[in-house]
Amino acid sequence: MFGAALEDRHRKLSMIRVLLSLVWLVVTVGLAAAQDLQSVLQTHAEEVASPSRNSVSVVLDDLADLGSPQVSVFLEQWAERNIWQDDATSLFYIGAEDGDAIALTDLDSGEQSTAASDGYTQIRPNGGVRRVIGSALVQFQLTDPDPDRRRSALESIGRRADASQLPLLEASLEGEADPDIRARKVQLINFLIARFGEDTADRVVAIESLSSDTSVEARAVLSQILSTSTDVTDGEPSGNIARVLDSSSDPAAFYSELVEADLAPPLVSPGDIRAALEANIVDGRVGGVPIAQLGTDVLRVQAYAALAADGLVPPLVTQADVAATLSSFTFYEDYDEPDPTITDAARATLDTVETRVGLEQTVDLTLDGLSLASIYFLAAIGLAITFGQMGVINMAHGEFIMMGAYTGYVVQLFVPDYTISLMISLPLAFAVTFGAGVAMERLVIRHLYHRPLETLLATFGISIALQQIAKNIFGTQARPLTSPEWLGGALVISDVIQISYIRIAIFVLAIVFLCLLLFILKRTRLGLEVRAVTQNPGMAASMGINPDRINMMTFGLGSGIAGVAGVGIGLYAQVTSEMGANYIVQSFMTVVVGGVGSVFGTLAGAGLIGFLQKGIEWLNPSNTLAAQTYMILFIILFIQFRPKGIVAPKGRAAAD
Amino acid sequence: MSQTPPPRKSFIVRNPSVLYFLAALALFTVFVAVMSEATGTGLISTSFVKTLGKTLCFCLIAIAMDVVWGYCGILSLGHFAFFGIGGYAIGMWLMYARTELIVAQSLAGQVIPPTQQEVTDAIGKQIFGVVGSSDFPAIWMFADSLFMQLAIVVLVPGLLALVFGWLAFRSRVTGVYLSILTQAMTLALALYLFQNDSGLRGNNGLSGLQNIPGFADSGQDVISLVFFLASAAALALGYVVFAWITDSKLGNIIQAIRDDESRVRFLGYHVESYKLFVFTITAIVAGIAGALYYPQAGIINPAEVAPIASIYLAVWVAIGGRGRLYGAVIGAALVSLLSSWFTGGGAPDIDLGFYKIQWVDWWLVLLGVTFALVTLFAPKGIGGLFDKLVRKS
Amino acid sequence: MNIITKYSLGVTAAFLIAGSAAAQDCADPIKVGVLHSLSGTMAISETTLKDTMELLIAQQNKAGGLLGCEIEAVVVDPASDWPLFAEKARELLTVSDVDVIFGSWTSVSRKSALPVLEELNGLMFYPVQYEGEESSRNVFYTGAAPNQQAIPATDYFLEELGVEKFALLGTDYVYPRTTNNILEQYLIDAGIPEENIFVNYTPFGHSDWSTIVADVVELGADGSQVGVISTINGDANIGFYKELAAAGISADDIPVVAFSVGEEELSGLDTSDLVGHLAAWNYFQSAESEANDEWVAAWKETMGEERVTNDPMEAHYIGFNMWVNAVEEAGTTDVDAVREAMYGQEFPNLTGGTAVMLPNHHLAKPVLIGEITEDGQFDIISQTEEVPGDAWTDFLPESAVLTSDWKDLGCGMYNTETATCVQLTSNY
């Protein structure tokens, strides 16, 4: 038997390898009475070298039978891709590559050696195989003294649960000292009992205990208990029936199922009719109809019916036939779980859970909306100052956002620590864009205060120039702007409600700027002067305010905020030379919808647009582009009916 | 008291520039026609004839823009949307008719004559196969009729402008707000067209438009010349019509609205109607320009309609000089031809020793800065300089 | 492409690459048109290919040119403006009189140039993976058809990773739309119920991914293994992967396989959070073969140490070399003669094995699946035998009956059911 298997295994190998292996086998069998790990692996050499999820279990079973302590070490190293194969002898080693050399460890003896890495191939099991290996490791790792290994075993159970793990898990619970791991074990035992428990009452208890758990895992347990399969019968349905399906809702689909199950004759498609007609031409006629007249469906059907009457083709299945056939069958779904008490409990629990999930999803959507609104607000608030207070249409505003983001990128090039670089880039981005804003105001805007519409044109020119300059300097490739470690990850309230820290940070940034701006405008001398110049520049000037200086400061402030917004936006999305252009139209709409000249208006505008977009996306989750289109249409309509925005300016300021 | 006003001089005498313009255009057209490959001289390549023809279409939409902005003071950032709609409308017919011929040819060899349904299905499969669909969307319902699609070229931009303008002018949305609103309209249209489900082949747009159905045998050299001549004729006609409109009493009111809307309103004129008229008629002209442009370009896709295109249109008019029709023509022709000269590698690179200025990279910077400078220091554009010269002489 | 690297390159206009081989008795040099955008949105991807072509032509000239003649590159810039591709193609073929064109990246740019190529009987090599459903007499498609990238990757998901629920996320344009249509049908045929396939389209450059990532996570609520097949294009990937990482989704939880993310795209990202996510291509820079080592070394020597190689570059590498061999075989650069000589051309590809040009103008190439590593490269974990490219997919009923064979049938859109040629020009 051994010989036959051996022969079979080696058929594909070259002669040299056969000889080598034979020699090797004789030696090993001669030396060691019991089989060692390497020889088991060699019997499955190909499968070990390029494992596949569906077939790797053969190897794992044999390894489990071996029961040697090296097995778990091997499995771990295998999954970690630290196993290397000698190309010449096909032997496996634990290897660590170091330049051109490789440090090898013998699997059985643990003997160390070094070799050139040229003659060795790294074994790379894919993700699916690694998961199977992980399951096989569970039995070794559950009671391992290293808590990391225990955790990885639990992770493995969480991903791929099966009934055999329940006793192992229960046995390991006793000696568990780590409270976190213990709690996780208890939770997993609960999941496993719910799915695979022996006793119905225990299962129902376990199932009902999940009613307040909205985690994806818990819902998965319930859904799996409730898994169904569709069946069809011409009599009374039997089994643990989930529901009876209405076949008239989609006759074509249900009928095709019947056809597939050979329970009904197939439909004859127009293509079939055509082919049948072509095949049955007699003397220029088909079923008595001349070919030239077969250009209409009516005559085609007529000809086909004639053929069918002669028994040359299968008869046409009409709509009535389909309806009649369908009515004689019952389609139903039945649970794979035979016990109705279990499925009823699971169904009731799942319904409760889903209500909660729905609620949590609403909260999550609100958070997303809030986050989007804060991003729009941040992008638009600078514009609200320059546009709202000064009436300047700054098309280059988006480019200031871009400049801020690139400032962040450049700072990261020089300061490798992400936290420190962020601390530097925020004020630096403000300074850079403040400077750029002031320069633009002095050079361009200043000359156009009496022609506000033309600021649009001039700043557009500057915008395309700036964008192209950025392209020339940084290239069109997106540049990485990486957030610090502590801003990575997400605030997880439940599996449904979570929001990434970076978005929270942007939200905080938006709030800070809102407060700062309100403070400056309402509580400082600068703010007073800005408002004065906005309302009546001439009068303000006669009161000793220098409108030139105020305009410069205001414009610089608005531009500076854009720069800071750029850093924030770059952290969560991409930094490219076109990123500003993506926000400019949106930002103008935010300001206009909100009402020009009011910080709160911009806030309201950003909120409206952010929530609206999320709402439309929720209604139509498969097409984000359509959501954006509808949103813009809504804004157009909104402006028609409230041309001055949500927070409309009053009095003098209202007249442009 | 009855004092007869002096008889108005004829339109041409009052507007000699129209005559100059028409003469120059005619000369230019004849020159290009003689030099083109179609007549055998071949000094101007077919691709350059196409470029010139397209430039004439740009000139046409530029004078429309000039009327709406330079004369009436409405800075519309949506006229390229109308241009695109015109292109899509004619493109639908071109694609349908061309595919119909191909389908008819391939179905002709079959034993059993095809049904109407089979023909339509086959055409649909050909046109929409690229976007993974085969059904005709409702907006293609008139695609088989050239007459209907030509009507759509005029009607859809006209109606859209009418409705949009009516809503906007009625709400007294003016100035910057109107600009942003028209820009939003353009963006909405572009986003809509970008969707694959829009029924206009999404990002792929409509292509192969240079192959005119029924003229497969006449080469592109002839087709390009025909379209060039048609564009020239349309430009001439458009120029005369707009010159006449701006010269009439209507034109005076329009310009008065630009200068002070409230005053005109207090004088008893229904300002909204005048604005609506100008907005709509220029939109129609923009649609016609688009319908002439895209068969020369060969392909239309949503990127053509993106908001930036409309801003560029404003740039052309501003550089050329607002409020004078020939200014718009000069601006559009100059900037678009220069643009293709610079990006096409026609301009020699400038070696500064430490850095080599390559115009492919720096052309947009130059354009942007020039534009800002023109806005600042020559608000009347090139046309303004022209005026000064004429007056001096 | 920054100022410094650009400075070292000649761009735009027609210019000559001086090789070392002396051009003897050549009345006109052999001209190769390069039709890749050097400005605009696509410049980032396409400039690399222009550089690739220049490197290949320089190498060939060093090796003695072609038919004893020097090869001259005629570079034009269609500026990511789709109508310009038609205009520039016409210019190349009629004004510059090129013998062959290497160019285009997006499908829409190819469809723009197609009518011109067919009208003037030009020859173009198109190097990028695309949605198929096309076979022009005048174009050789050296990139992957869907069955050479999407289908094997999906098989990998089904068989190796045991994925039961699929999220097909894509940018809203033709390649993702058609690919996803094909995949949807393929998955349904493979027994995945329709409700287990979630499809979403986002605009170019999309950045707000939180809701979509949440939707994907939610798919796993019934205990199924979820996998994401991403046809998200370009910059938008950055936001997407950042959001995935922020949500703490590892490749073990929800694997993502991308068809448009290669070495170039990853250079704009910190890949530490993406380790283990997948990409499917016909080539990775990490492929182990001597030819690849040489190619990578030559590339880095010309372009700089930090530059990476990618799949479309390999496509041009194979395409150009095949064209050179075909010209030598035909003894002329005449388009029809070269086209005939192209069929059955073999050339070793950079991943080991041999690429073959099929009569449907597509290549037979192996499919590789790689896992993203920390250094922005890919660990190749699966490599198939050569898969013949299929112009018309077998998984959509309308195109299953179509086939393309320019050698024997002389038709790119041949209906096997009715045994007729649907059309000789292509369906642009």
From TrEMBL, chain A:
Stretches that traverse the bilayer: 369-388, 422-440, 501-521, 552-575, 587-612, 624-641
Tagged with keyword Nucleus: no
Gene Ontology MF terms: transmembrane transporter activity
Broad class of the protein's primary localization: membrane
GO cellular component, one term: plasma membrane
UniProt KW Transferase keyword: no
Keywords recorded for this protein, A-Z: Amino-acid transport, Cell membrane, Membrane, Transmembrane, Transmembrane helix, Transport
Subcellular location: Cell membrane
Bilayer topology annotation: Multi-pass membrane protein
Biological processes per GO annotation: amino acid transport
Family in the record: Belongs to the binding-protein-dependent transport system permease family. LivHM subfamily.
Protein name per UniProt: Amino acid/amide ABC transporter membrane protein 1 (HAAT family)
UniProtKB/TrEMBL annotation, chain B:
InterPro entries reported for this sequence: ABC_transp_permease (IPR001851), ABC_transptr_urea_perm_UrtC (IPR017778), LivM-like (IPR043428)
Sorted UniProt keywords: Cell membrane, Membrane, Transmembrane, Transmembrane helix
GO terms for cellular component: plasma membrane
Keyword Signal recorded: no
Descriptive protein name: Amino acid/amide ABC transporter membrane protein 2 (HAAT family)
Topology with respect to the bilayer: Multi-pass membrane protein
Locations listed in the record: Cell membrane
Source taxon at top rank: Bacteria
Family matches, as Pfam families: BPD_transp_2
Transmembrane segments: 18-36, 48-69, 76-96, 146-169, 176-194, 222-245, 273-293, 299-318, 325-342, 362-386
Keyword match Nucleotide-binding: no
GO molecular function terms attached to this record: branched-chain amino acid transmembrane transporter activity
TrEMBL record, chain C:
Pfam family, one: Peripla_BP_5
TM annotation in the entry: none
Keyword rRNA processing: no
Identification of the protein by name: Amino acid/amide ABC transporter substrate-binding protein (HAAT family)
Record key words, sorted: Signal
Protein's organism: Tritonibacter scottomollicae
Entry-linked InterPro entries: ABC_urea-bd_UrtA (IPR017777), Peripla_BP_I (IPR028082)
Domain of life according to the entry: Bacteria
Signal sequence extent: 1-23
